[in-house]
Amino acid sequence: MTIPFAWNLITAGYVEQTIPGVIISIIGLLLFGKLLEPLWGTKELSKFVFIVNFSTSMCVFVTAIAVYYVTQQESYLYTPLSGFYGVLSGLLVGIKQLMPEMELNLFVLKIKGKWIPSLIALISVVVSFFMKDLVSYLPVILFGIYMSWIYLRYFQKRLETGLKGDPSEEFSFSSFFPAILRPVLDPIATIFHRLLCGRSDRADRGQTLETSSLPGSDSTEANRRRERGQRALEQRLAEKLAAVKSTERNRTICRTVQ
């Protein structure tokens, strides 16, 4: 139905097909948005959601058509594909970028932020082999992770320097995989990087020479982002603790008066 109703590429990401999906999307947006909004700002967060949602929908749409032509199975054309999971996965990539060492509680496990997107992708792939009903969510999640990484890696404008992207090694494509696979992935990633971003690299190098940036500035910028993320998180925790203490103090006063 996306042809000719092209606006489906925008609206599909905001439509959930199940009540649990609605609940998960709302809770995920509230939790992850609270972590990223103080660092990015409301405008940038909204821009990120729109870009990741639209680009993910485009990739899923093209993939469905390509798989149909390969397999000749019409189910790939008519299976409803929608949901906010692509954006939620993308927000996890933002947490990986800004707060990689922050530990998040997943049930009984404590996982560092830098491994959450990879873990979600792995779980999604494994579960899809056993639960066929969830296969339709797999491309949304995987493309959400990848398209958000592309945006943050190459296109998001850094307010501090005026440059685009995050070229630090800690946010490279191979950083999503175990270290044993990186020697194999890095050369492949470098080829696609040069094909897709060679022109922007030359522009960035020219701008770097004009502004006389020091070597290692990319790593320094990445560290600054992480420090800001950590400070924002600590400030938010301190405010919550102060609010709890204030509530307890008020209750004690009321009891004393009574």
UniProtKB/TrEMBL annotation:
Places the protein is found: Membrane
Organism per entry: Aegilops tauschii subsp. strangulata (Goatgrass)
UniProt GO BP: retrograde vesicle-mediated transport, Golgi to endoplasmic reticulum
Protein name per UniProt: Transmembrane protein 115
Origin organism lineage: Eukaryota, Viridiplantae, Streptophyta, Embryophyta, Tracheophyta
Chief place where the protein resides: membrane
Gene Ontology terms: cellular component: Golgi apparatus; membrane
Transit peptide is among the record's keywords: no
Residue stretches of biased makeup (Polar residues): 208-220
Region (Disordered): 206-229
Keywords, ordered alphabetically: Membrane, Transmembrane, Transmembrane helix
SMART domains membership: DUF1751 (SM01160)
Membrane topology recorded in Swiss-Prot or TrEMBL: Multi-pass membrane protein
Pfam families given in the database record: DUF1751 (PF08551)
Transmembrane portions of the chain: 18-36, 48-70, 76-95, 115-131, 137-155
